[in-house]
Specification:
This protein has 252 residues and is an alpha/beta fold. The mean pLDDT is 86.
Length: 252
């Protein structure tokens, strides 16, 4: 992810590139990379040929409107990622059938292939995020893209772990049913409010939805059981058993 941040912060981006085929896209990107001194001019044709050859062997369009062309060659001294957004998406045969509009060109010396594996995984996670893709489409420059990346990192970062203190009544009691009895004693003071607080139109609507959502498979499995058991166990028995288990679980 650090390499992606450097890419956006250092303006290694090409936005709204007007190209309708792979050869034109790669040629324009390499030409811009030479102008920005990201790759030596003497290696421009070699890098372009390597990228096209790689695409013929195994296309790098991974889905979510993203492709990750890459080439690792002698003469490239620094690992480099270039972000490209096309003005109009092109069909590159992605697995999900979505035309490709975003490219992450990964270039570098042969020894950097392993390092770029982490970047490739980061790109896949980043571009599977609907909100970031929406921001990437609307971005007007590298600063907008950097801000979108920061929002993505904040949104997906793991929460800081806090010290967990044991909750009274959740320790092992050593007695049969001890945990259940401790749980009932702990909830007894607010047991009534668990029901009265839920008497709200949104809760009632959700409960009715869940009732029918659970009722449908109950009838289906009841029909299957009736066929398998010669009607010894059928739909009615399945409804009663499901209702009993659901009530007991809810109450206790």
């Amino acid at each position: 992810m650090d390499l992606l941040k450097q890419t956006l912060e250092n303006e290694r981006v090409i936005l709204d590139l007007k190209a309708q085929d792979q050869h034109t896209i790669f040629h324009e990107v390499i030409k811009t990379a030479v102008q920005k001194q990201l790759i030596p001019a003497a290696l421009a044709e070699i890098v372009e040929e390597a990228l096209l050859s790689r695409e013929e062997t195994a296309p790098t369009a991974i889905g979510h409107s993203v492709a990750i062309p890459h080439a690792y060659l002698e003469g490239l001294t620094e690992p480099c990622v270039i972000f490209v957004r096309l003005a109009h998406a092109v069909n590159l045969g992605a697995p999900d059938g979505i035309p490709t509009r975003f490219f992450f060109f990964m270039l570098g010396p042969p020894g950097d292939a392993g390092r770029h594996l982490d970047t490739l995984a980061s790109v896949a996670r980043l571009m599977s995020d609907d909100e970031f893709r929406f921001d990437a489409i609307r971005a007007r420059g590298h600063t907008d893209l950097s801000a979108a990346l920061e929002r993505y990192l904040r949104r997906t970062s793991l929460p800081v772990e806090v010290e967990r203190r044991p909750v009274d009544g959740l320790q092992y009691s050593g007695r049969l049913g001890g945990g259940l009895m401790a749980d009932i004693r702990r909830r007894l003071a607010i047991y009534r409010s668990d029901f009265t607080d839920a008497l709200h139109q949104k809760c009632v609507g959700s409960a009715l939805f869940l009732f029918f959502a659970c009722f449908t498979p109950t009838i289906t499995f009841g029909g299957v059981l009736a066929l398998q058991t010669g009607n010894e166990i059928g739909v009615m028995q399945m409804i009663i058993a499901t209702a009993f288990c659901g009530v007991v679980f809810s109450l206790f």
